Amino acid sequence: MIRTARLILLLALLPGGAAFARAGTATNSLVWQVDRDRVTADLRGEALWPLLEDIAHQTGWHIFVEPSAARNVDVKFSNLPAAAALKKLLGDLNFAYVPETNEASQLYVFTTSMAAATQRINASAATKPVPRKRVAHELLVKVKPGTDIDALAKSLGARVTGRNDKLGIYRLQFADDAAMETALGTLKTNSDVTAVEYNYILDPPVGAQKIAKAPAGPVTLALNPPGDSGRVIVGLIDTTIQSLGADLDPFLLKQISITGDTTVSSTDPTHATGMAETILRALAAQGGATSAQILPVDVYGNSETTTSWNVALGVQAAINGGATVLNLSLSGTSDSAILDDVIQQAIAKGIVVFAAAGNQPVNTPTYPAAIPGVVAVAATQGGQLTSYSNFGSFIAIALPGASVIYLGNQAFVVQGTSPATAYATGIAAGTKSGTSLTWAQILQAMQQKFPVPQK
């Protein structure tokens, strides 16, 4: 059967700034980056219907399938355009993609004819949160003071590959998943262990897009000499950061890296560079000068993704570095008790934490935004929630989801709840550095000024 020619992938018509990820096990994963028109997959024995539910969830498409259609998917590829990705994912099945501008686009999957694709993929299943991918063969544990973690690991047949003795948290690596699952059951009953969980992988950050005509020029801001006390330092927990240029680099403190040295080969801005400039743009909007500075903490290294372990260490490093407010423009669907604990300790010290609500348009919680005490930020456009922004009762405020940034003389735009979070952080930091208001007063005012629109 000849594949239908009506495959017109106008993904630029879909909402930008959304990067979604799905994984069911340590080996099965699907990452559909809508804004970049790139798909990465590693699937073994994936049935057709769960696969289509996953695609519907990540893209927002309305998908119809011929009831008799069936396929077990065994593919592995990286960074393919959506058209090529669909061909590999659907194999010998026929499909037709129908783009729409004012409503959800449609995908028809069939064996005989497009008209036979009458069964709608379950909408409720497509709006469930995506199971998070985890690092293979690894567990994170938190133990009581005085516990001999090395002896405990040895008794389980594990190696300690990461440790923070001050916090009592450790990363254990096992020979395989079977050994890990056995150890998980054992650790849950160990009285010296206060928490044990998988090492979850968070969503990859959204990339910036080049634009020819920028609606805003580069950030112009002067640094007032920070005082010895009462300094406002933004802990930017993100990717590695690039130079912002001679005028803005004084706002950056020396970067801390959790993963070691990072090599940046791309001439496009990293995610951290975009978030730092967005924070500074928010500061500049409040006046021509500020004493607030940014402490970049790299938790990604050379990887496209980060883990709950790296983020927990990054948060602690920012706290140790003197951060008074944290920007977490990252998200995932799995709650990490160990990361929760580190963030709760920060909040108990009076540190304000802003986190992105996520770029999957569902009302289920995302983390760390949904951790109690964290200020979860959604994205708006024209006073309404964007089509890609998460929503729900855990979200506190909503700000514009697009930011113009510069690297050299080239302008870029970055979209998503990430820049919305950076705007919120910059507004809060600028207000704190320029007034005598308390953090509580600042957050109350922001909730009134930036309420969450109804979805």
Produce a short descriptive summary.
By secondary structure, the chain is α/β, with parallel strands linked by helices. The protein folds into 3 domains: 11-126, 3-Layer(bab) Sandwich (Phage tail protein beta-alpha-beta fold), CATH 3.55.50.30; 134-200, Peptidase S8 propeptide/proteinase inhibitor I9 (Alpha-Beta Plaits, 2-Layer Sandwich); 209-449, Peptidase S8/S53 domain (Rossmann fold), CATH 3.40.50.200.
CATH H level of the largest domain: which superfamily? Peptidase S8/S53 domain
How many individual helices? 10
Helix content class: 10-25%
Question: So what's the CATH class of the largest domain?
Answer: Alpha Beta
What is the distance, rounded to the nearest whole angstrom, between the alpha carbons of the first and last residues? Answer: 42 Å
The total tally of domains equals 3
Poorly predicted ranges: 1-27, 123-131
Shape, please? globular
Overview of the molecule:
With 455 residues, the chain is an alpha/beta fold. It folds into three domains: 11-126, Phage tail protein beta-alpha-beta fold; 134-200, 2-Layer Sandwich (Alpha-Beta Plaits); 209-449, Rossmann fold (3-Layer(aba) Sandwich). It is 25% helix and 28% strand. It contains ten helices and 25 strands. The protein has helices at residues 48-59, 82-90, 123-126, 149-156, 177-188, 271-284, 308-320, 337-348, 417-434, 439-449, and strands at 19-23, 29-33, 38-47, 62-65, 72-80, 94-98, 106-110, 119-120, 134-143, 159-164, 169-173, 193-200, 209-210, 222-223, 233-238, 256-257, 289-290, 293-298, 325-328, 352-356, 375-381, 384-385, 397-400, 402-407, 410-415. Strands 15, 16, 18, 19, 20, 21, 22 and 23 form an eight-stranded mixed beta sheet that branches. Strands 1-2-3-5 form a four-stranded antiparallel beta sheet. The longest helix is centred in the last third of the chain and has 18 residues, at 417-434.
